[in-house]
Amino acid sequence: MDLRQLRYFVAVAEELHFGRAAERLAITQPPLSFNIRQLETSLGFELLRRSTREVALTPAGRVMYQEAVKILALARDAQGLAGRAAKGETGTVHVGFVGSAMLTNLAVAIRAFAQERPGVEVVVHELNSFEQIDALQRGLIDIGLAHPRVLPAGLVSHVLHAERFICVLPASHALAAQAEVDLRQLQQEAFVLFPRHFAPEYHDKIVALCMGAGFTPSIRHEVRHMLTIATLVSQNFGVSLVPASVQLVQLPNLACRPLARPGRASELHGVWRADELAPAVLALLAALEAGGDGEVLP
């Protein structure tokens, strides 16, 4: 029994005439009759009573007709759903992100993607860069939005967003009165930063900026999230260097100043499994690449 035989049987059951059913199916009558016989043989009972004057359903045929209609409808639905999945229009995509990523146009791209593809459920998870790598390897997330770092085998990445570093400091700090901050002026300041193992390469980039200005930063406080860094700075725990998008956060006693010599850019990378084949995941990656380049702020 196959779907074609069921489709042929439904046509005959509804027309109760082999000629009209064959015309409806756009086939000749002999293959129609042959397929109905094959279906009956595979089932082991008759579905139709045939005579020179009429075609009628047997009791088994009436039951089979009702079930065949359901099966064909389910097959059509399955084909439609599978087709949408193949186009990346259905499914679930889990995205890991560092907190600052949601302050960039990557967040806008994710939201636009979800609105354009309502059949795709996009679930976001706030994780530091280290946690995202682990979650990708374990299959807990499909895409990571992380600070750059060396990746283990099986993962690949691409730069999605780049922006300048800025200095955040208490608004009451003397340097906040300046239009911009020279890194050399931060030599004696206590820094608030994240632990190096969360994102070694990104951490080292910030330290390298300071070393390029002639000093090693005194990292007094370590916290997990970029927004926590901004909060502690606003509470006079120290100063920090953060991505420019952090200045979108409005906190009392927080001042954001550009650097006199910006130096290296702060980057966010998209990270995913090298063997990723899910159409919805690949579609979101394409949307992020299209919508993520450049700075959020002028």
From TrEMBL:
The keyword DNA-binding is assigned to this record: yes
Coiled coil ranges: none
GO molecular function: DNA binding; DNA-binding transcription factor activity
One GO term describing the cellular component: protein-DNA complex
Keywords: DNA-binding, Transcription, Transcription regulation
Pfam families linked to this entry: HTH_1, LysR_substrate
Keyword Transferase carried by entry: no
Domain HTH lysR-type: 1-58
Family note: Belongs to the LysR transcriptional regulatory family.
Full protein name: LysR family transcriptional regulator
